[in-house]
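User: I'm putting together notes for a lab meeting next week and I want to include a structural view of one of the chains we've been expressing. I don't have a solved structure, so I'd like a prediction I can at least talk through. The sequence is below, exactly as it appears in our construct file.
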Amino acid sequence: MLKFDQVLHAHLGSLKEAVTGWSEAVSKLEKSKEKAESGLQGKADKADWKGENAGVTQAFVRKTAKEFGDALTEATSIRNILRDAEGEFQAAKSELERLVAEAPGKGMRIDQQGTVSHLIRPDSRSKDYDGPKPEVADFEAMSAAIKAAIDRANNADDVASRALRGLVGADKNNFSGTKYDSLAAASKAQDAEDAHAAYELYKKGDEATPAEIDKLNALFKNNQKDPYFAEKFALEVGPKGSMEYWADMGDPSDGSRLGVDHRDKLKELQTNWSMTLATATHSTSPEMEQWKADVIKAGSEPIQTRGTSPYGFQVMSNLMRAGEYDDKFLKNYGNALVVTERKMTHDGRLPADRAWQQMGGMPSHLNWQGGDLGKDPMIGFMEGLGHNPKASTDFFNSSIDVTPENTKDNKKLDPFDYFTKDREWPEELNDKGDRTKEPGYNALGHALESATTGHPFDAETEGLKDVRTKENAEVMQKVVERYSSDSKFMHEQPGIDDSLGKMGAAYIDELNRSLETNSDSTMEEQERSPFGANDAKGKSRFGEEFDTGLLWNRGDAINFMGIVSQSESGHSTLSAAESLYTTSVLEQVGPKPGTDFQDRDLTDARTTLRIGSEAQGIMDGSRMAQIDMDYEKDSEEHKKAVAKSTEWVKFGVGAVAAGGVVALTGGAGGVLVPLAAETVGGAVTTFIGMEADDLAEKYEKDEMLKKNSDELKEKALTDGKENSLRPGIAYATAPGWTYDQRNILNEDLVDRIRTGRLHAQDNNLPDPYEKKV
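Assistant: Thanks for the context. Below is the predicted structure for the 773-residue chain, given as C-alpha cells.
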C-alpha cells in the first residue's frame, strides 16, 4: 500500500519514459504484423506444398504470423495500462501537492505521514493573532481529500500491477493476446475473473476445504464494496443460489466439519457474503432488479437441504447482518417479511415463534456471528436496517399494508408499534446454550439507533457528524413516548437498554431543553433556552414547529432519562453525554475566557449548570433505586453495583467532529453527543483531559466494601454531585481567566450545581422495575 509521502514525492519520469518506449514498440509491431500477415502468412497460404511439409511448415508459419498480432495486442495493452496508471499517479500527486501548498493559508499543516494539524496551536497564538482559525470541519475536509488522493493512487497501483503480471506471465512461449483498452477495462476484467473464481468455489458448497473457504473469503475481501464484482457474483450465483448455499452450510446432518472445526471461517464468510450482496443491491440494472424481486418472492418458500428446510426469509435475513443494503430493496423486503409473518401467525393470533418453525428435519444453523442461531428472520433484517439509516427511518415512520392482495380493505400495520410493543419476540438459543430474547431486542435497538441518529449503529467514530433530520426526530419522539410510558418496556426487552442510552445521548440537547421548562406537560420551550438544536438564527433543524416547540414535554424527558438510567449501561452513557453537553453549552453561552463580565452575563451559564446537575441527579437517583430493587441490601453485589454507578467518569473521547463529540464509555460503544457549538474549544478540551478516580477499583482494594450499603450509597451520591461539578470546573479553569475571575466562577457555578441537585430530588422519578419471579 502506498503511503502519503510516497505518493507526494513519487518520481514519475521513469514511468513516462516507459509509456513512450512502449508506444514506440507498438508502432514497430504494427509494421511487423502487417509484414507477417501480408508477406510471411500470405506466401505460405498461396504455396502449393505437399506431404509432411504442408502439414507442418504451413501451420508453423501461420502460428508465427499470428504471434506478431498477439505481440502487438499485448504491447498495446501494456502501453495503455502504463499510460492510464501514470495519469492516475500524476493526478493523485498533483492533488496532494495542491493540498500541502494550500494548507498554511487555511491555518493548517500536513506532516510527512499526511496528518493534519494546526499551523499555530490555539494556545500558542498571540492576543493580536488575526490569521486563519480552522475548525473541526476544515480538518475533516482536508483529511478526507488526502485519503481520496492516496486511495486513487493505490487503486491504480493494484489494478496495473495485477494486469501487467497477467499480461507477461501467462505463457513464456507465447504472447497472451489479451486486450486492455484502458486501466478501467482491466479493472472490470479482473472483477469478472474474480467473480467467476468465487462462483467456482461456491459450487463446492460445504464440501469445500478450509483452504478453499479461505480463498473465497480472500476474493470477497479483495473486492469489498466493488459494484461490478458484487453484481457479477450475485447474478452468477443467482438469488436462490445464495440461499441454498447458506442453508447447506447450516445443515448439521450432512457430515460437514466446517461448522464444527472452522466456525471462525464461516463467521468471516457470512460477513463477506453479506457485504457483497449488499453492494450488489445498489445496482439498478434490469438483471439485478429481477434478482431483488426473486429474492423477495423466494422468502416464503422452504429452502430444502438434505436435512433442513428453512424459509427463504430465514436464510436471506442472516445474509443481511453486514453491509448497507439498498433502501428500496430493504423496504420491499421488510414489508414482504412482515406480511408473510402475519399470514403465518393468522394475523398475530399465534406467536411469531410459530411462524418460523421448519417443516421438518433438524434446525438450521444460519447465523455464525454469535448471539443466536438465526431462526428468527426479523433479527437479521433489523441488523440490516441498523446499517442503513435512511431505510430504517423510513421503515419506522411508515405503515405496512398487510393484505396487499386486497386493495379494498386498507388493513395497515405500524412497524414501530409492532416491533416495540405488539410482537412477541421469540426466544433464541445463545452462545451459552441459554434461551433468551436478547438477540432480537439487541437487533431492534440497533435498527432504532440508526433510525434516530442518522448513522449506522456501528459507524466508525472518525469523522462522525450530527446529521439528525426531522424524520430522525419523529422516530425519537416515538421512542421517548414508548419507553418513558412504563419501565416494563425496557426491562422486559433484554438487550435494548444500551441502545436506548445511545439514542438518549444523541438527543441530550433536546432532553435538556425539555428539562428547563417549569411545567411537566407544556410543549413550549422556556423562552430563549440555551439548549436544543437551534442554529445561529434560532431556527430548529427539525422544522419550524420546533423553533420554540419541544419534541417531548418535561415529564416524558424525566421518565425517559430516569428509566434508561435504571440500567447500568444506560446510566453510564447518559451521564457521560450530559457532562460533555453541559460543558459545550457553557463554552458557548458563558462569557469567553479572557473577557470581562458582569453578574447578568452569567445567566445562561447558571441555567446550563443547574439543568445539567438536575439531569445528573435524576439519573443517579434512578440508578440507585434500581440497584436497591435488584440486589439484597448490604450484599456484595449491591455494593459493587453502587460502586460502578460512578465509573462513567472514566470515559474517553474517540473522536471530535463538527457538531458532536464521540464519547466512549465502558461497554457502551461510541456515542455521538451533540455540541452546542460547531467548534471544540478550551472548556471542552479541559474537561476531556480531566482525570477521574477509578472508584470501583478503590471500593474493592480499600476497606470500603466492608461498609454498609447506606454508607456506600451516600458516598456514591456525593461522588455523583462532585461529578456534576466537572463541567463547571472545566469552564472556570479554561485558559484565559484571571485568578479573581476563576474564584468568582467557581463559587457562583458550584452554587448552581447544588441548586440543581436539590431540584432533582423534587422530581417524581419513575419507579424502579420489579423483576418477575
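A couple of points you could mention at the meeting. The CA atoms of residues 2 and 688 lie 34 Å apart. The two ends are 58 Å apart (CA to CA).

User: Perfect, that's what I needed.
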